Amino acid sequence: MNTRTHKALTLTELLVSTVLISIVMVGVASFSFVIKQLQSTTDKSGLLSMRLSAAMNRMGRDALLTVGDPASPGILSYSSGVTRSICFRHDVDNTPLTYADDEWICYFYDSGGTNILKRCDNPDPPSIPPGADAQCDTAADVQTFLSLSNINFFNIVYNAELRLDYVEITLTSRYDMTKAAHVIENPEQVLTIQISPPNYGR
Prior knowledge:
202 residues
């Protein structure tokens, strides 16, 4: 007849197992926290990328459709203090021999505390480019995009003969403009494009 001895857990074994389980749980909790942080960062970066891409696509298309020539520039800009605006002339009626019936599309950096990039059709009063935010606000059509963390969002580049070479657009923004940029908590991204309008007489 076999007799087996049944032993209960000793206090030492119980303490050791508790410590081991605690170590494993801390590791699991830390891993879960890191995953959540990574997911949050990815969501913020993805949303910011979509905002920047939408603004850049619209602005790039307007720059690409510009018509003009050195005698009658189709790209005009205003830069004074914290005010920045750039306008592109479009041939809406397909009349390439005259600019009289064209329309202007302008982008204005609203420096009134919000730093929002605005797009407006034919600013009112029609002094191109707009030197005041109110001109965009009273235009026929106004769109607001994202807030910019860099006021210098455009650069018009001319060649050695002072003829238009290309327009460089740079949009810089953060997920939360009220906070400083942070790689994880508040990512900042930059998009840059160079456009040379094909219908611009050089």
